[in-house]
Amino acid sequence: MPKIALTTLALACAVLTGCASTGSQPQASSSPPVQTTCKAITEPEVAALFERWNQSLKSLSATEVVKNYAARSILLPTVSNKARLSAAEKEDYFVHFLENKPQGRIDMRFVDIGCNTVLDAGLYTFSFAKTGTKVSGRYSFTYGWDGQQWLITSHHSSAMPEKD
């Protein structure tokens, strides 16, 4: 086979296999692998995720509460102006929040289920055993499936702006 034909054949093979004409190997993709299966979840199971979080409040342990949050998550709490991104920042918030022994109750819920992500948003009321006060607020939790469990990826809470 003439030398030019071999060169043309080598170049065609390189193009078809995705290699550069310099003979370099294909580069590994820098994007994360695409997850092709979606974890199924029902609305009652979403409600149970809130109850899991609410039960962790009863422990009065900020460390236990923070276990409900994904490593990469955000907490935008009612009684703090600071967005909490790290586990330490979330724990700092909950140490103070738990001092009044809070318990939440969902008053109205809207759930939107996607592929490995869930939105649970609505209205809730907190009762504080230590002070006897009740505070109504708006909330949103988003959960993500990490391959083993559902964890909170974002949590926003704000007190109701209008008083009854």
Describe the 3D structure:
The chain is an alpha+beta fold. The chain is built from 4 helices and 5 strands, in the order αααβαββββ. The protein has helices spanning 3-16, 43-58, 62-66, 87-97, and strands spanning 69-76, 102-113, 117-128, 134-145, 150-159. The protein starts with a helix and ends in a 5-residue tail after the last strand. Residues 1-27 have low confidence and may be disordered.
Summarize the structure.
The protein has helices spanning 3-16, 43-58, 62-66, 87-97, and strands spanning 69-76, 102-113, 117-128, 134-145, 150-159.
Give a topology summary.
Layout: H1 3-16, H2 43-58, H3 62-66, E1 69-76, H4 87-97, E2 102-113, E3 117-128, E4 134-145, E5 150-159
Parallel strand pairs: 1-5
Antiparallel strand pairs: 2-3, 3-4, 4-5
